[in-house]
Predict the structure.
Amino acid sequence: VQAHGIHGDAVRETTIEAWAAAYLREIKHVQPIGPYFICGYSAGGVLAFEMARQLLALGDEVGLVGSIDGLHPSHHAEFDKPEVAVPSKGREQIWHKAWRYVVFAHLLLKQKVKNRLVRMHVALHRRVPSWLRPQYLALLFFEAAKRYQMGDYSGKFTVFSATHRNLRTTNDLG
């Protein structure tokens, strides 16, 4: 299933539950009967989790639900909190901490500017330009994730994670 909004069009879904239901309609159109094997990349793992919950509620069989290089769905509340690793002593600690906050402040300002541009395009009913689409999807997801109340799931949830991550990569859609 392709992420709604990836082509810059308006996204009607404003909750994780509604997004999951919309994706399930698309999946069931192609495969009306389970078992279903669902995995989401990065933050899409939360959507996969909710889709599995909804499938079980409908009486469908879920063969696998998981996340690729993402977090367990219970960690969605932690998305907004930056991690700052600081060396243990002296001037180096102060310099490192100050530098990390400067970098974080720059990234935060950049995100706020991009968020304003996205909101402006949406308010004017204009297609979001391609260079802003990752920000658009992230903004939609994080706003929905803040309101998401994760329910119970009786099955297993699998997290697939790379053994090595390039921490300099910023091209994450979710």
Summary: Strands lie at 36-41, 62-68, 158-160. The first helix runs from residue 16 to 30. Residues 113 and 134 are 14 Å apart (CA to CA). DSSP finds four helices and three strands in the chain.
